[in-house]
Amino acid sequence: SQTIHQWPATLVQPVGSPLSLECTVEGTSNPNLYWYRQAAGRGLQLLFYSVGIGQISSEVPQNLSASRPQDRQFILSSKKLLLSDSGFYLCAGEPWGGYNEQFFGPGTRLTVL
Amino acid sequence: QKEVEQDPGPLSVPEGAIVSLNCTYSNSAFQYFMWYRQYSRKGPELLMYTYSSGNKEDGRFTAQVDKSSKYISLFIRDSQPSDSATYLCAMRKGGSEKLVFGKGTKLTVNP
């Protein structure tokens, strides 16, 4: 079975500080990978997705970026956090050939103060 | 008009009740329909997905799609307190890598 690991589970960061959230996938190769943000009352917002190493599609122009240095590793970064970056960040994966079977990690709750 | 609309609730029912959760959508290009369950402070988990209009059953859960009305439903029979969670509908256009999610409906099943 496929598993997504995310860390840390919670994070409190000051405004203007950098951010790096990492996501790794087990149990599948060549997955599509996704970063979502979930804010209260706003549902899941797709931030980035990747169909392969080094291939990143951005959905929302903002101060966040993503990278995929390895097949099963997906990283979300920021050089300077804003208050509005607070939220619940979820990494998701979709196995190669497993169309419509998107599975999620446990999430990272980020609070920017 | 948003692509996917979902009543956020909250919805509160007694144990054993039949629960009906619904989403509407505006874009007829959506071909695949999913339901996720999300417990508080956890990642969503896939419950069911369907492609064609009609019903799909899995245990106490039934997913229903009506493409002509652009309306999907999730029914939960014999609801249990452990079903208390937020339920998210999601949809996908053919050939797209992206899901579009509803905002979720928060369900509480009272013992």
Q: Describe it for me?
A:
The complex is a heterodimer of chains A (113) and B (111). Chain A has 113 residues and is mostly beta strands. Chain A contains no helices and eleven strands. In chain A, strands 2, 4, 5, 6, 9, 10 and 11 form a seven-stranded mixed β-sheet that branches. In chain A, strands 1-3-8-7 form a four-stranded antiparallel β-sheet, with no helix packed on it. Chain A is globular. Chain A starts with a strand and ends with a strand. The mean pLDDT of chain A is 92. Chain B has 111 residues and is mostly beta strands. Chain B is built from no helices and eleven strands. In chain B, strands 2, 4, 5, 9, 10 and 11 form a six-stranded mixed β-sheet that branches. The radius of gyration of chain B is 13 Å and the shape is globular. The termini of chain B are far apart. The interface between A and B is medium-sized, with 25 and 22 residues.
Number of helices of chain B: 0
Biggest β-sheet of chain A, characterized?
A: 7 strands, mixed
State the low-pLDDT regions of chain A, or none: none
Strand/helix succession of chain A? EEEEEEEEEEE
Binned, the helix content of chain A reads: under 10%
Tell me the structural class of chain B. mainly beta
Tell me the radius of gyration of chain B: 13 Å
Give the chain pair forming the largest contact, with residue counts. A-B, 25 and 22 residues
State Rg of chain A: 13 Å
The amount of helix of chain B comes to under 10%
Number of helices of chain A: 0
Keywords:
heterodimer; A: 113 residues; seven-stranded mixed sheet; 11 strands; 59% strand; B: 111 residues; mainly beta; six-stranded mixed sheet; five-stranded antiparallel sheet
Short description:
The complex is a heterodimer of chains A (113) and B (111). Chain A is mainly β and 113 residues long.
Write the layout of secondary structure elements.
The complex is a heterodimer of chains A (113) and B (111).
Chain A: E1 3-7, E2 10-13, E3 19-26, E4 32-39, E5 43-52, E6 55-58, E7 64-70, E8 73-78, E9 87-94, E10 103-104, E11 108-112
Parallel strand pairs in A: 2-11
Antiparallel strand pairs in A: 1-3, 3-8, 4-5, 4-9, 5-6, 7-8, 9-10, 9-11
Chain B: E1 4-6, E2 11-14, E3 19-25, E4 30-38, E5 45-50, E6 54-58, E7 61-66, E8 71-76, E9 85-93, E10 100-101, E11 105-110
Parallel strand pairs in B: 2-11
Antiparallel strand pairs in B: 1-3, 3-8, 4-5, 4-9, 6-7, 7-8, 9-10, 9-11
